[in-house]
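User: Hey, quick favor. My workstation is busy. Could you predict this chain's structure for me?
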Amino acid sequence: MSESGTSKTLSHGLQVLELLVEHPQGLTLTEIAEGIGVHRTVAHRLVRTLEAHHLCRRDRFKRISLGTGLVRLAEPVEQDLRTLARPVLEELSDAGRASAHLVVRENAEQVRMLMIVEPRQARMHVSFRSGQVDPIGRGSAGLALLSAEPPVEGEREEIARARTRGYAVSVGEIAPGITGISAVVPTGRDTPGTAIGLSLFEAPDPDELGRLVVASAQRLGSLLK
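Assistant: No problem, here it is.
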């Protein structure tokens, strides 16, 4: 145990998983050791333990990546929220002819993409990876969540604007050329903030899309209360 009362070994194991999330193409054992700042022997023991629980795996080139055991562990996470949100996201995606996203606040600095639903009738659409983590101050979902808080000195103009109109708009902040339009879901619960929105290549009428997003946020909020 460390002086803070936490397990140093467990902490290192979680750091390995977090490092592999950032490198989906896989890493060598040496790269993992350097990435978390431990000796290669320690990294080897950590990886072997994670492999035993199917949380990581090695390919034929001995590169290490995340394992299928994580799927089973992640399945119950926010299951109720995802179950209720899916039909709302599908309807929003079809109405806006764009990918619809559900984003939750991870902590004070980050948001996580919990779910994305792609449109069924669009020639092209934006695609993101579920579980993707982004800074809260960048992208429409994070800006929308920040707009639900009281104003603070020095905040971005986009946050104040979102607070006024009820939804946030960002362009090229999460991915080049991609517009995001998001609104906060009014859950009425003591839970991490949740935002719903659209991601698309072009937004010729952001106000109309904003109204669609706000309506969907209200609908999901009523289901969660």
